[in-house]
UniProtKB/TrEMBL annotation:
Keywords: ATP-binding, DNA-binding, Helicase, Hydrolase, Nucleotide-binding. GO terms for molecular function: ATP binding; DNA binding; DNA helicase activity; hydrolase activity, acting on acid anhydrides, in phosphorus-containing anhydrides. The keyword DNA-binding applies. This is Helicase. Pfam families: DEAD_2, Helicase_C_2. It comes from Haloarcula mannanilytica. SUPFAM superfamilies: P-loop containing nucleoside triphosphate hydrolases (SSF52540). GO terms for biological process: nucleobase-containing compound metabolic process. InterPro entries: ATP-dep_Helicase_C, DinG/Rad3-like, P-loop_NTPase, RAD3-like_helicase_DEAD. Residues 388-511 form the ATP-dependent helicase C-terminal domain. Residues 535-575 are annotated as: Disordered.
């Protein structure tokens, strides 16, 4: 790596905010001998541009000896972030590669078939005459030979050990704050009817402990192997059978890795097992702090690393969570350039939103949202509902209060479409969202205000969370919630001249700020220090609808008998 050329590799024609200083600090951190640099850069810092400059410091073929690796990877957990990179003219030399399911086959009669279900994976000994023109294999070949290959973190991990995407000189991970928890989720093994087609043929025992889980996985892997052999004997598979074969092969690999890691006395990974409903019920096997998993899939993939995020809140805790030695890691702090008065926090807390108290608190929050709507009659708003159960209750309450004409929702399958429709709308609609605290750019009039309905604490009924709290890891618990809050607050203020208000409706959020104060970045602490109670209009639903056209109101009146806009959530995300 050649950190000295980081400024020359910066892709924009000029700097904004603190970018020039950030590049100097990142260069100094690498030149001090650190192999990993954490870049804590708030919203609007231009993290993707910084990431491109860092990736450009990787050795090239002309600068390396024969045995040295070259080039760079750019990766992010978020598909939307990769989409933004692909559309940014300043980042056109980042060569994006996606999974097979994102590409369509080009063979006659197969143009609506994704590559992962094309004849080359359905038919035994199929010889594709146009593989050199296949959009997936073509993009893969191009990306494997480009200076900077860009991909999602999932694809990056899946290609660990491949000949195509081997080790490179530099790896840049954008939005890296949840790397440890994301790896835990990615490495979780789900044993259920959804993952095991022959579920009804398995006599699932009441699993009490990990030793029994190991014995059960051996039986499952044997059945999966037998079913895969049956599929391989067929001359041609259907699309469904291809998906079944691939799913079973992935399951076999995961189960083998779990047993190998569990029996390795030197492994740092702690495993937990969940079977909520006992005998015959699904089983989930989860790793905690999967350092060994990250070593193979991430840390062995490069020489030097840059991890960028607005919310890497505690260097030592982050390093412990992802298996890094803090002495080999530098933290670069990038200052915020957005005026604090443009990103105000308002206290509208109505009580606690715990599962036991939610039914009492939520009607008061709904009434407060009506008042906030009246305070912003001509401006779009976003409500972070935290779960689909809260979203459904809140939608019903707002309908009952007579302001449903201005409210939009989404379900699990229609998230992206509903979000796009809301953003395109000219009406000052209010979007009730679930799990949209990250990777959402609502600059300018796309959204001027938002409400946080619930403190986003991790679910204590999750065995990993419970285990951490048993080990007295309350700092992790509060940091995880604070990280989500900070991410959410950044959705509506995206530029120095942008502005947007954030209303805090759960009193537990105020308690969280006290408990996690020492982990707050200075720029967010400045927001919290200015926290105030707003002067809202009285409860008046007609004023909340003042910005809507009369035609919009009438259309809603005619459709009030339909339930929930066809939105039937299957379950509460956390509760």
């Amino acid at each position: 790596m050649y950190p000295a050329r980081i400024t020359d590799e910066f892709p924009a024609p000029s700097y904004r905010g603190n970018q020039k200083q950030a590049l100097a600090d990142i260069r100094a951190a690498f030149e001090s001998g650190k192999d990993v640099v954490l870049v804590r850069a708030p919203t609007g810092s231009g993290k993707s541009l910084l990431a491109r400059a860092i990736a450009g410091c990787a050795r090239t073929a002309g600068e390396a000896a024969a045995e040295q690796v070259i080039d760079a990877y750019y990766t992010t957990p978020q598909v939307s972030q990769l989409d933004d990179v692909a559309e940014d003219a300043l980042l056109e030399d980042l060569c994006v590669i996606r999974g097979k399911n994102n590409y369509d086959c080009i063979l006659p009669g197969e143009t609506d078939t994704p590559v992962n279900q094309a004849p080359c994976v359905r038919e035994r000994k199929f010889d594709c005459q146009v593989k050199h023109r296949c959009p997936y294999f073509s993009d893969r070949a191009i990306a494997s030979n480009r200076r900077i290959a860009a991909m999602t973190l999932a694809y990056f991990m899946q290609t660990a050990g491949s000949d195509v995407f081997g080790k490179r000189d530099v790896v840049v991970i954008d939005e890296a704050h949840g790397l440890g928890e994301w790896a835990e989720m990615y490495a979780t093994i789900d044993l259920s009817p959804q993952s095991i087609p022959m579920w009804n043929d398995i006599d699932v025992p009441d699993i009490d402990g990990l030793d029994e889980a190991v014995a059960f996985t051996e039986r499952v892997e044997h059945l999966a192997e037998r079913r895969v052999k049956e599929l391989r004997q067929k001359a041609e598979l259907t699309g469904e059978e291809v998906a079944e074969r691939d799913s079973l092969n992935t399951l076999r690999q995961d189960l083998g890795w779990f047993r190998e890691d569990y029996t390795d006395t030197e492994s740092a990974t702690t495993w937990v097992v969940d079977q909520a409903d006992g005998e015959h019920a699904p089983v989930t096997i989860k790793p905690m702090n999967p350092e060994r998993y990250l070593k193979h899939t991430v840390w062995d993939r490069g020489n030097r690393f840059a991890l960028l995020s607005a919310t890497i809140l505690n260097k030592e805790a982050f390093c412990a969570n992802v298996g890094l030695d803090p002495s080999n890691v530098a933290l670069v702090e990038v200052g915020h350039t957005f005026p604090v008065e443009n990103r105000p926090l308002y206290d509208v807390a109505q009580g606690k939103m715990t599962y036991e108290q939610r039914d009492d608190t939520l009607p008061d929050i709904a009434r407060t949202i009506v008042r906030i709507m009246a305070n912003h009659p001509d401006e779009k708003g976003l409500v972070h509902c935290h779960s689909y159960a809260i979203q459904e209750q809140l939608k019903d309450l707002l309908d009952d209060f007579g302001v449903g004409a201005r409210v939009r929702t989404h379900d699990k399958d229609g998230r992206d479409g509903a979000l796009s429709a809301w953003k395109r709308s000219d009406n000052p609609d209010v979007f009730l969202s679930v799990k949209m605290e990250e990777a959402l750019d609502l600059e300018g009039d796309l959204c001027r205000w938002q409400v946080l309905c619930k403190a986003p604490y991790p679910n204590t009924r999750d065995s990993r969370v419970a285990r951490r709290l048993e080990d007295d890891q309350w700092g992790w618990y509060y940091r995880t919630a604070l990280r989500t809050v900070i991410q959410a607050c950044g959705r509506v203020v995206r530029a120095p001249n942008d502005h947007g208000a954030t209303y805090l409706a759960d009193s537990s959020l105020l308690d969280l700020f006290d408990r996690a104060e020492h982990d707050m970045p200075d720029w967010f602490r400045a927001q919290v220090d200015r926290l105030s109670e707003p002067d809202l209009p009285r409860f008046a639903p007609d004023r909340a609808l003042a910005g809507l056209s009369s035609g919009t109101k009438r259309r809603h009146d005619r459709s009030r008998s339909r339930s929930g806009d066809g939105n039937h959530p299957l379950s509460d995300v956390w509760d």
